[in-house]
Amino acid sequence: GIDSMEAGNVFLPEFKIDYNQRFALAPTSDEDAHRPVVHTAQELALVLCEHSVRTLSKNLTLQYRNTLYQLEHHGPGYHPRGAKVTVCELLNGQVVLLYRKRQLPYTIYRKAEGPRRVEDEKTLNNRVDAALLRQSTKPPPRPSPNHPWRQDSAVASARVAALAQSSVS
C-alpha cells in the first residue's frame, strides 16, 4: 500500500497511464473548441478570488473579517442601503466591494478594542503586590564609571574651562 508522500509520488506516473487508458476518449472533431480568454487581468483576479455576500446597513457600512467598510458617497442621490454587496478578497489580500458588477469606493475602519476590565477588590491587592515585588527586585540604576556625576568637581570644572578656551581660539 501507499503510506507516504514519496510512495505516492512514485506510484502516480503508473496510475496516470492506467487511468488514461481506461477512461480517455478520442475527440469527435480535430478542431479546437476552446474560446479565447477575453477578460482583463483585473477581471480574472476578481473571478479567482474569495467571494462573500454582505448586506449594507443604513449608514452604508458592512463588516468583513472584523473590519468595518463604509462606502464613500458624494452628494445626494441613490445610495444602496440594505443592498447585497459582494466582498471579493483577492489573492494578494486586497478587498474589492462589488454592487451590480461595479466596484464601490470605500473607507476602512478597524474595530476599536473594547474597554479594559476594571480590577475588583478581590484581584486588586494581588496586582499591587505583584507590581511592588517587581519594583523591589530591580536594582536601582547606577551611573557608569565615566559619568559626569562620578567625576571630581575640580576635574570637571578644569575640563569645562579647557573646552571654553578651545572654543574661543
UniProtKB/TrEMBL annotation:
Residues 131-156 are annotated as: Disordered. This is Transposase. It comes from Candidatus Kentrum sp. TC.
